[in-house]
Design brief:
The chain has 221 residues and is α+β, with helices and mostly antiparallel strands. The protein folds into 2 domains: 37-67; 77-206, 3-layer Sandwich (Rieske Iron-sulfur Protein), CATH 2.102.10. 17% of the residues lie in helices and 23% in strands. The strands form 4 sheets. A 4-stranded antiparallel beta sheet has the order 2-3-6-11, with no helix packed on it. Strands 7-8-9-10 form a 4-stranded antiparallel beta sheet, with no helix packed on it. A 3-stranded antiparallel beta sheet has the order 1-13-12, with no helix packed on it. Strand 7 and strand 8 form a beta hairpin. The relative contact order is 0.13. The chain binds FE2/S2 (inorganic) cluster. Residues 127, 129-130, 132, 151, 153-154, 156, 168-170 line the site of FE2/S2 (inorganic) cluster. FE2/S2 (inorganic) cluster is lined by residues 127, 129-130, 132, 151, 153-154, 156, 168-170.
Length: 221
């Protein structure tokens, strides 16, 4: 005979299969995805993209014209602004990025006896002997006058007025880089190791007059 407790499904009484199936177990539901691209975000994106395009159009075109092309470091053309050109007869100026000395000769006869029409000459700083960097020494006194290119490695000594060799083991004078004088008074100097071997006692005759359109003459054979 079934007791009251059994009828109520109480403690100590196994639940019937029909009752176990009726238990309502909660089922986990995925969190609904929120839309990533809201209308507000879409409008903001469109606004900033449009503004960016306008800025590129306004700034990009002038920059395109102002961008300096084909001017590189040593090994390519080097631009020298007029304020970096020494006065005629002044001490040479080092153009660091081009690894050369820029000199401006006075017309006439150099102290070493060469005739020159005067003008600009770019001398490669590399010593033709074993490649040391040749400084200009304004205070070095030699052959009764001051101001020489003097190699610190083996004392090859070159004139201030053209890099002509007067002493030391170097096989030739300092090498010459070609110069072109531009319309605005600036210079374009071609640099690089391709010009090794161009130095000669005729260096002072290869100076280029500082007038637009002039270029360094080829070395005479
Ligand atoms: S490297 Fe200049 S004199 Fe030897």
């Amino acid at each position: 005979m079934e007791t009251d407790a059994a009828k109520a499904g109480g403690v100590g009484t196994p639940a019937s299969p029909a009752r176990a199936l009726a238990v309502d177990t909660p089922i986990a539901k995925p969190v609904p995805k929120r839309s990533v691209l809201t209308r507000r975000l879409f409008l903001l994106g469109g606004f900033w993209s449009g503004l960016g395009l306008v800025v590129v159009a306004l700034v990009g075109s002038p920059l395109n014209f102002m961008w300096i092309r084909n001017l590189r470091g040593f090994g390519g053309p080097i631009a020298v602004t007029p304020d970096r050109i020494p006065e005629p007869g002044a001490d040479p100026k080092k153009i660091v990025e081009g690894k050369f000395w820029l000199i401006n000769l006075e017309a006439g006869t150099t102290p070493n006896g060469e005739e020159t029409a005067g003008g600009l000459l770019a001398l490669y700083q590399k010593c033709p002997h074993l490649g040391c960097t040749v400084p200009f020494n304004a205070g070095f006194d030699f052959q009764g006058r001051k101001g020489w290119f003097r190699c610190p490695c083996h004392n090859s000594t070159y004139t201030k007025e053209g890099g002509v060799l007067v002493f030391g083991p170097a096989p030739r004078p300092m090498d010459v880089f070609p110069i072109e004088v531009n319309e605005d008074g600036s210079l374009t100097v071609s640099t690089g190791r391709d010009f090794e071997g161009t130095g000669s006692p005729a260096n002072p005759t290869r100076a280029v007059l500082n007038e637009p359109g002039n270029t360094t003459p080829e070395a005479s054979a």
